[in-house]
């Protein structure tokens, strides 16, 4: 849905058109066109000519991946052009006027935050224990479950191998030698609940005045690490009003948050986890990206971290693509029953997940298009800019991992998605609970911080590695072509 508006927001704002309207769909179309123009003027013109962007964006999003597969430099060019368009065209608005975001983030903030430090009361030794179906799995129990997820096609073998390395090196979990900034500390999939018990030094950002602060502060005090809170006024750590006064606004105090984080000692990991509904999610994602990009330009010891959505377009490993194609060929009697629906829907229902293999970085890969219409064009661009930033980082150390589909509040409040998630297992997809995904992805973050950079021959391989997609890469059907039937089954 387009969220055109004539009102002037403060902070990060969609670009204004000639008529003063700030159309979210027009902005998305122009950003993708700019990205595509870096390698294909024809593809860029096709994106600009798309008059139904709220649904038509999907094929152009897929095109940005396809055009980058054969040539690693093309994928990097697409990423850089897309990021440049975002930072040049989006604005930062304050009382003194408007600036392109790129110029605004280059300036120092207008105020300096105070810092309150909470010291956790716990002293437990850090351990990896993953909640799963009423149990807490660690050690050999967790290894067996990892093997089961690999066998079911829910995670890639490289994911299980990485978590296995963390199990084998429990000393890695002591993060007292790291500072970790958590942008969007109240997010369900953010690592705060886990890292707070792994002796990390955490700098947490969330919107002031939200109910999440009571939970964040309680979590900090029960852990064994140090948690730093940004404040607009100095307060003692035991002040009863702390939960009402802590926090900073990513959308309007972007340079100030950057300055607060810049003063932290390194090494510093910066995790971007904030979520807002609709077009606001793109605004806050761009705010986090501006902070990350600015700090990466200033310091070599910055490690950005993202949880990538599995409901996007990815190049997938040859083994995963082959598994999906084999599952398609093995449908048996189901194929006969599904053929009429496929034909009557114009190919929208029960479409194959992978059409074939293509060259990628000296090897072969498939393309999985797991975009979900209900999430919309703004959500897709918000997640895609994270991929672009990871690609633009080259071989610099980053943590950019595909996380599984998860029953977060932001998903299950959409009744159609909630029903589809409930019925997803009928099509070979496991949807994870938030506490399970949280612990697993926090462990993967630790792996990335300890192991360091990977030398990928093609940037698409960065996302193939250590992916926990829940099965979306290996099932027979393109996810959205089976989603309506999963929803029907989920209702029952």
Structure, explained:
By secondary structure, the protein is an alpha/beta fold. The strands form 4 sheets. It has a 7-stranded mixed β-sheet with strand order 4-9-8-7-10-11-15, with helices on both faces. A 3-stranded antiparallel β-sheet has the order 1-2-3. Strand 5 and strand 6 form a beta hairpin. The longest helix has 20 residues. It starts with 10 loop residues before the first strand and ends with a helix. The mean pLDDT is 93.
Which key features would you list for this structure?
492 residues; alpha/beta; seven-stranded mixed sheet; globular
On the 0 to 100 scale, the average pLDDT is 93
Silhouette: globular
The radius of gyration is 22 Å
Distance between the termini: 29 Å
What order do the strands of the largest sheet run in, or round the barrel if closed?
Answer: 4-9-8-7-10-11-15
Helix tally? 20
Percent in helix: 40-55%
**Total DSSP E strands:** 15
Global structural class: alpha/beta
Main sheet makeup: 7 strands, mixed
**Percentage of β-strand residues:** 5-15%
Low-pLDDT segments, ≥5 res: none
Summarize it:
With 492 residues, the protein is an alpha/beta fold. The chain has helices at 24-37, 41-48, 53-69, 72-89, 101-106, 139-152, 157-168, 192-195, 212-222, 242-245, 254-262, 279-298, 318-329, 333-344, 376-392, 409-412, 415-423, 434-451, 461-464, 479-491, and strands at 11-13, 91-94, 97-100, 114-119, 130-132, 135-137, 179-183, 201-205, 226-231, 268-272, 302-308, 313-317, 358-360, 363-369, 399-402. It is 46% helix and 14% strand.
Which secondary structure elements does this structure contain, and how are they paired or packed?
Blueprint: E1 11-13, H1 24-37, H2 41-48, H3 53-69, H4 72-89, E2 91-94, E3 97-100, H5 101-106, E4 114-119, E5 130-132, E6 135-137, H6 139-152, H7 157-168, E7 179-183, H8 192-195, E8 201-205, H9 212-222, E9 226-231, H10 242-245, H11 254-262, E10 268-272, H12 279-298, E11 302-308, E12 313-317, H13 318-329, H14 333-344, E13 358-360, E14 363-369, H15 376-392, E15 399-402, H16 409-412, H17 415-423, H18 434-451, H19 461-464, H20 479-491
Parallel strand pairs: 7-8, 7-10, 8-9, 10-11, 11-15
Antiparallel strand pairs: 1-2, 2-3, 4-9, 5-6, 12-14, 13-14
Helix pairs in contact: 1-2, 1-3, 1-4, 3-4, 4-15, 6-7, 7-18, 11-12, 12-15, 17-20
